[in-house]
Design goal:
Helix content is about 85%, strand content about 0%. With about 170 residues, it is mainly α. The longest helix has about 100 residues.
C-alpha cells in the first residue's frame, strides 16, 4: 500500500526537524507514536471483535442446524412411538373383542362321561389298598402299644443298664 523506504523516512525527519525545531520535535515524535499505538490497538480490537462475531455467527448457525436435526429426530420418534402405541391399542382391542365374543357365545352343555370298567376296577383297587394300609397301620400301632406296656418298669428303683447309657 504505502511503499516508503529509508531515504523517504530520512527526508521526512529532516523536514520535521527544520519545521518543528529541536525543542518541539521530541514531543511531536511522542505524540505521533501515541497516535500510532492508539490506531494499532483500535485496529486489533476491531479485528478481534470481527473475528468473535464471525465465530459466534458460525456457532449460532451450527446450533440452528443441530436444533433442526433434533426437532426432526423428535418428530420421527413421536411418529414411531405413536405408531407403536396405536398398534398396541389395536392388538389389545382385538384381543378384548375376541374374549367378549367368546363370552357371549353360549356354551354347549357337557355330557357326563360314562365310566369305563377299567376305571371302576382301578378305583376299587385303590380303595381296597387304602383300607388295607389303614388296617396294617392300626395293627402296628396295637403291637407297639402292647410292647410298650410289657417293657414298662414295675415300680422298682433300679434302672435298666440300657437306660443308664442313654442318659448323659
Amino acid at each position: 500500500m504505502f511503499d516508503i523506504g529509508f531515504s523517504e523516512l530520512l527526508l521526512v525527519a529532516v523536514i520535521a526537524l527544520l519545521v518543528l525545531g529541536p525543542e518541539r520535535l521530541p514531543k511531536a515524535a511522542r505524540l505521533v507514536g501515541a497516535w500510532l499505538r492508539k490506531a494499532k490497538s483500535t485496529w486489533y480490537s476491531v479485528k478481534t471483535e470481527l473475528e468473535e462475531e464471525i465465530a459466534q455467527a458460525d456457532l449460532k448457525e451450527s446450533l440452528r442446524k443441530t436444533a433442526a436435526e433434533f426437532r426432526e429426530a423428535g418428530r420421527e420418534l413421536d411418529a414411531v412411538a405413536r405408531n407403536d402405541v396405536l398398534h398396541s391399542i389395536d392388538t389389545v382391542a382385538d384381543d378384548t373383542r375376541k374374549v367378549l365374543h367368546q363370552a357371549r357365545t353360549p356354551m354347549k352343555p357337557l355330557k357326563p362321561a360314562a365310566a369305563e370298567p377299567t376305571q371302576i376296577d382301578s378305583a376299587a383297587r385303590t380303595a381296597a389298598a387304602a383300607k388295607a394300609a389303614r388296617e396294617a397301620a392300626a395293627a402296628r400301632a396295637a403291637a407297639a402299644a402292647a410292647l410298650a406296656s410289657e417293657a414298662a418298669p414295675t415300680g422298682t428303683a433300679e434302672a435298666s443298664p440300657n437306660q443308664d447309657s442313654a442318659t448323659p
